[in-house]
Amino acid sequence: MNILIFSDEQQLTEAAVQLILQAYERKPNLVLGLAAGRTPRRLYSDLVRAYQEKKIDFSLVRVFALDEFRGLSPNHPLSFAYYFKENLFNHINLRPENIFLLNGQTEKIDDHCRFYESMILQTGGIDIQILGIGLNGHIGFNEPGSSFGSRTRLQILTPETRANQQALFQAQGEDPPTMALTMGLATILEARNIILLATGEDKAAIISQALEGPITISLPASCLQLHPSVFVFLDELAASQLKRKAFYLYCQEINKREKLPIVIL
Predict the structure, then answer these.
(1) Are 191 and 128 in contact (CB under 8 A)?
(2) 0.85 exceeded by pTM
(3) Cα–Cα distance for residue pair 212/232, rounded to 1 Å
(4) Residues with catalytic function
(5) What is the pLDDT of residues 54-101, one digit of tens each?
(6) Domains in the chain, please, with CATH?
(7) Phi, psi of 230 (to 5 degrees)
């Protein structure tokens, strides 16, 4: 696991974008798994800038959404489909046929989830899965107790997760959804590379537990310790409770001094 600590969010996202650009140079038809939320938003802004500067061409890139709220249409302002259009898709040259989104309104949930898994396989699998982390350790909407063998499915959201969404939905005059469609933990772990982004002091405790604590279904993100190619991008606040923080910074310094590149699989 590569744990990288930066002084601020700008440096963090710039470094993450460089990793994606490195992968793109090796494979122009890159397959990206996309997470929504506050933390990845700046990453997508930087990817848009890289596209405008002609550092990346998205015409052959394929993308898969990590999750979606149950019941929301793609045009709902709080749906993840809408989020991706506003923050990424509308600003780059992704082809519509290369965009794969979970349908929060599907009536045939099991069939839809199996189809989604099959499309990931047909593209050859996800090259880089982008993740954030919830305050209870969920990745995607894999809440505590999710099996490490879980696949794309319908997930009931915990009261804590719904509470974190309360203000956004209240502003729309709605209650937060009780369920979501999400890639499973096994689906996520099949990605060749994983980028985990976390910023802010509120993420410090759960980051420490997920990266340095026991591997347990009570903390879904801890399964990332089992993956061979994980890149964790943290700001100083999110990294503040890591027990081995000094060693991670030491490794960063050695890599920088020796000019050792961060290499994806």
Answers:
(1) yes
(2) yes
(3) 12
(4) 67, 136, 138, 143
(5) 999 999 999 999 999 999 999 999 999 999 999 999 999 999 999 999
(6) 2-257 (3.40.50.1360)
(7) -110, 135
What is the Cα–Cα distance from 253 to 84, expressed in whole angstroms?
35
Answer positive or negative: Cα dihedral of 164, 180, 176, 172. Answer: positive
Instruction: Encode burial over 170-182: b for 16+ CB neighbours within 10 A, e otherwise.
Output: eeeeeebbebbbb
CA–CA separation, 194 vs 185, rounded Å?
12
Question: Residue 50's closest CA among 20, 75, 89, 76?
Answer: 20
Residue 261, phi-psi category: left (phi > 0), alpha (psi -120 to 50), beta (remainder):
beta
How far apart, in whole angstroms, are the C-alpha atoms of residue 261 and residue 82? 35
Handedness of CA 180, 113, 47, 242 (dihedral sign): positive
Q: Dihedral angle at the C-alpha atoms of 157, 162, 168, 174, nearest 10 degrees?
A: 80
